[in-house]
Amino acid sequence: MNLEKSWRRLQQQVVETQVWKSIFRVGIPNTNRKRVLAVLGNVVLHLHPVKTRKSGVKMRYTWCAGGMTFFLFLVLTFTGLLLMFYYRPTIEYAYGDMLDLREQVPFGIMREMHRWGAHAMVITVWIHMFRVFMTGSYKPPREFNWNVGVVLLVLTLLLSFTGYLLPWDQLAIWAITVGSNMARATPLAGYEGPFAAQIAFNGVNLVTAGSDARFGLLGGRIVGANALLRFYVLHCVFIPLIAAFLMAVHFWRVRKDGGISGPL
Amino acid sequence: MTESESRGVSAAGSAAVAPTRRGFISWLAVGWLAFAAGIGAFVTTMARFLFPNVLFEPPSSFKAGYPSDYQVGEVDERWKEKYQIWVVRNTEMTYALITVCTHLGCIPNWLASQNKFKCPCHGSGYYRSGINFEGPTPRPLERAAISISPEDGQIFIEKARKFLYEKGQWTDPAASIKTT
Q: Distance, in angstroms, between A119 CA and closest chain B CA?
């Protein structure tokens, strides 16, 4: 009893300090009004709805697949950041650094976590999409958010694709060779694609093996040093930034479109 | 002061300060056009930036030594690593096969004991001539332009000029060196 009293007094004292008040403006959220203000006044929480429907937290309904995807994105961002301390994206070092990350660096499992997490994220994205489709949650007013989700799916696959080259082993090089060869058949922009032959000036083809979509993707005609560096930058900076921005839009729109859709 | 005088003064004074509707809108249009042009130039610069002017890749044409350097009846792999070219010499001619699988772009292996090119990616197989006979590949290997350099008599191979069997181009004089 005495212990509880002194605990409460300590709590009261901490809450009333200027440091606490400067960080948490509304105090202990013990009323509905204060709970709302606590969510609205927090940069991390404000994307989240102030109130969630009971069905929204039902695992049997949502499978939490979107949540798992976001969690895996955070895991991948963090482990990827750690890997960047050791990995050098050059032909001389890339493969060796990848092996060293496994064998010589403490907690070599960090690289495996990044890899497994990447596989898992691709799977959970599909599960999330499947759930949203099966519950009809793509229907108005959520049709825009479905489209944002489709772009996020593509970005996830592109992250997976660009990351695949970075170990710089035979599997990586040939997978990217095969994958990027598909870009040759891009309409207009790929030199073997439809209408590319029609884009000419004074009889000189403008879309060639040295100027088409595949060339822009690889920074060369072959999967070489430029391609490795280019994929590294796309994988570590460019695509994650776009994905993070679209995720913010995605979560915000879930709230603005009426929260997680309930069972019909 | 008469009425007309005062009106004239005020009209002249306001014209010097306040812009007309037409003038404002035309300046607005000029401003927006300049803005759009600036953004367009920036985007173009960014796109062009991604296409380098200098590539550190092996050149697409090279001299491959003298015809007598190659054994009759052999698939020569000495240029495979550097230039992705097999030089094949038989009793009739010498030709240069590009080592890129026509299925999805992997590099097949020459299996001398089985007398065929075999792609490790999806199992496409080609005869010594480059004609496909197994696996998912839709067409034969491509041949590169090959000639005898008039300067020094060496074999000169140009990878940029390709000859495709399915277009009937293998009979082109530049697709092989005839043995005389």
A: 22
Record the tokens describing residue B51, joined without a space.
């296409």
- Closest residue in chain A to residue B51, using alpha carbons only: A216
Residue ranges in chain A assigned as alpha helix (H): 2-15, 18-23, 32-40, 59-62, 65-83, 94-103, 109-134, 143-165, 170-181, 213-218, 225-233, 239-256
pLDDT tens digit sequence for A62-108: 899 999 999 999 999 999 999 999 999 999 999 999 999 989 998 88
CATH topology for B61-178 is Rieske Iron-sulfur Protein (2.102.10)
**CA gap B35, B29 in Å, rounded:** 10
Contacts of A225 in chain B (CB under 8 A): 56
Three-class HEC string of chain B: CCHHHHHHHHHHHHHHHCCCHHHHHHHHHHHHHHHHHHHHHHHHHHHHHCCCCCCCCCCCEEECCCHHHCCCCEEECCCHHHHCEEEEECCCEEEEEECCCCCCCCCCEEECCCCEEECCCCCCEECCCCCEEECCCCCCCCEEEEEECCCCCCEEEEEEEEECHHHCHHHCHHHCEECC
**Residue from B43, B48, B51, B53 whose CB has the most chain A CBs within 10 Å, to mutate:** B51
Q: Report all structural domains of chain A as residue ranges with CATH numbers, in order of start.
A: 62-256 (1.20.810.10)
- Give the gyration radius of chain A's Cα atoms: 25
Q: Do B105 and A220 touch (CB under 8 A)?
A: no
Which residues from B are below 8 Å from A222, CB to CB? Answer: 57
Q: What is the pTM of this model?
A: 0.79
Tens of pLDDT, residue by residue over B124-179, are 999 999 999 999 999 999 999 999 999 889 999 999 889 999 999 999 999 999 87
Q: Which residue of B has its CA nearest to A183?
A: B104
CB-based contact B136:B103 (threshold 8 Å):
yes
Asked if this assembly's ipTM is beyond 0.85, the reply is no
- In chain B, residues with a C-beta closer than 8 Å to the C-beta of A223 are none
Which of A181, A207, A229 has the most B C-beta neighbours within 10 Å, making it the best mutation to test the interface with B?
A181
